[in-house]
């Protein structure tokens, strides 16, 4: 369909410059710290920028220690490895620490949350999502413990910067003596009952990837209150060198440490974190207000308990306003119908006008790579009945949100006028 010629969109101009989903926003201070690293020759994995980032972020998040790493994925890998070692002991060099063990994982997240379980030879058991926050469903987690009472580790992500139901999840984990790895890659600055995400789990990770609320172009942090754990992660991340005069290795190591150049960019961004959150919050509120007349809802959060960082604004279309849409493995088809629309139609319309949206992260249990892993819903069912439409709701909540939802352009440099055009395009999709 050519949206630019579609009479529904008559009068809307294509954006000259692309409106991004979420792109980096540099302020100038980054240059100063990168230059200083170069001028002083501290360009490797030691230096003042790394020390400053670790100190500033530990203070901001409210933990005692932060360890600068190459990315959020490496932070998660080492967090999950450390949890595995605590639970099951040190692994042999050719084995992961989770060998033969199951781990309960958020299902609707980016695969970087989950892959480290596989790196450590564990098996991810995916826990379905709940509608209130689009995060791990506590009821499904309880069911999972009934089915697999031996599990001792839970990996939870806060999707799109909205905190999950941490009270419920923590109390279930406590009851079963399970450790929590908190993936706060998307939620830096979001709080749950006044406490920062990234400080709630037993082992915590954040990301400074280019699309995150602040960025170093890359980079991530492992966050903890334990000095021993921080030292262990620092050691693992620098090839596990022992304190000997020569290269001495008693454990498997990794080249995961943050560079002082990347840290310079992060250091320049930290003072703008709260400003970015405020800009993203304004974008979310504006969408929410201007889309109230449509049969859609914004991505929800529990206003009593949490303040998101509003990293991505998303919408979900009401069931009875869903136009027909089918998705294959890598392609899709949809039909336009008056008064209705579908995520793929809205995304195509946005693309035609040079704006970037994105489908909701496809749940992990639907991913070809993880399709044979166990998946547990709130009623304790898993594979086989996951797409059953029972008494007006889908039992597989993640699949339903993926089907009806989408991420909207959420770039903090988008102007109000540009957002008005995006809002207009969304309205026209329902004509
Ligand atoms: C939920 C989640 N976890 C982990 C990561 C991995 O972070 P990185 O790209 O810094 O490795 C990302 C984003 O990239 C993410 O969105």
Task: Please tell me about this protein's structure.
With 431 residues, this protein is of the alpha/beta class. The protein has 2 domains: 7-24 and 273-429, Aspartate Aminotransferase, domain 1 (Alpha-Beta Complex), CATH 3.90.1150.10; 29-270, Type I PLP-dependent aspartate aminotransferase-like (Major domain) (Aspartate Aminotransferase, domain 2, 3-Layer(aba) Sandwich), CATH 3.40.640. The chain is built from 12 helices and 19 strands. It has helices at 29-39, 48-61, 72-88, 115-119, 138-147, 166-175, 227-237, 260-269, 273-290, 343-352, 397-404, 416-429; strands at 65-69, 102-106, 123-127, 153-157, 179-183, 191-192, 195-196, 203-207, 220-224, 296-298, 306-307, 314-317, 325-327, 332-334, 358-359, 375-376, 389-390, 393-394, 405-407. Strands 1-9-8-5-4-2-3-16 form an 8-stranded mixed beta sheet, with helices on both faces. A 4-stranded antiparallel beta sheet has the order 10-12-19-15. Strands 7-6-11 form a 3-stranded antiparallel beta sheet, with no helix packed on it. A hairpin with a 2-residue loop joins β17 (389-390) and β18. α1 (29-39) runs antiparallel to α8 and α2 crosses α8 (260-269). The protein is globular. Bound molecules: pyridoxal-5'-phosphate. The site of pyridoxal-5'-phosphate (PLP) has 15 residues, from α3.
